[in-house]
Design brief:
Blueprint (H helix, E strand, L loop, with lengths): L1 H13 L3 H12 L1 H24 L1 H6 L2 H27 L17 H13 L2 H10 L10 H27 L9 H24 L2
Length: 204
């Protein structure tokens, strides 16, 4: 069952989503920002894993009011991040970073915080831990322990995936020294984040 679960997890990571857009935008600025964003995403998953192990996620997703509130907050935050990226791409006057320091307008704490919140406020991440993961649990064993074990495997695979993702996408950081490619990436990721936020609201 573990190989099958690992395969499902990797498919979930490879399919583009909000985490992709947040990490990609940070990684394209500088490798260190990409790793910070990836760390924020995985720390967000740790919150979902702990909530699932304690039964909080199940209670949350079975409460229509609480689930709707989480969905709206998550969608609003994605739209906010996307709108912020679009605004930056449309600014007429941009301050170019000094050579060798692409993306100095970003702050490490802000990069981590944005990635962490985008994951924590994503109800689909919580849904994975209460709908997909339980299918791989042994009914004869303690559920909380199994959730922690499988959740840890999920997070470990994610660490490996994001490390590879950041190493590959950070090669774009050289292009980000020029405003043209930076504006293009901001527009692509910004539009994608806004679209994901709208889709999240529209999804039942």
């Amino acid at each position: 069952m573990l190989p099958l679960f690992a395969g499902v997890v990797m498919v979930a990571y490879v399919v583009p989503g909000p985490d992709w857009m947040v990490v990609l935008r940070a990684s394209a600025r500088a490798r260190r920002f990409g790793f910070l964003a990836a760390a924020g995403v995985q720390c967000g998953l740790c919150v979902h894993m702990a909530a699932a192990a304690l039964g909080v996620s199940t209670a949350l997703l079975h409460s229509p009011l609480a689930f709707t509130a989480l969905k709206l907050f998550g969608a609003a935050y994605l739209v906010f991040l996307g709108s912020q990226a679009l605004w930056q791409s449309w600014r007429r006057r941009r301050v170019e970073p000094p050579p060798g320091e692409p993306g100095t307008e970003l702050r490490p704490g802000r990069v981590f915080r944005q990635a962490f919140l985008s994951n924590v406020l994503n109800p689909k991440a919580a849904l994975f831990f209460v709908s997909v993961l339980p299918q791989f649990l042994d009914p004869a064993g303690p559920a909380a322990v199994q959730v922690l074990v499988l959740g840890s495997l999920d997070i470990g695979l994610g660490v490996a995936w994001w490390a590879l993702f950041v190493l590959l996408t950070s090669r774009l950081s050289g292009l980000m020294r020029r405003s043209g490619p930076r504006q293009a990436l901001d527009r692509v990721t910004g539009t994608a984040l806004v679209g994901l936020g709208v889709t999240l609201v529209a999804t039942g």
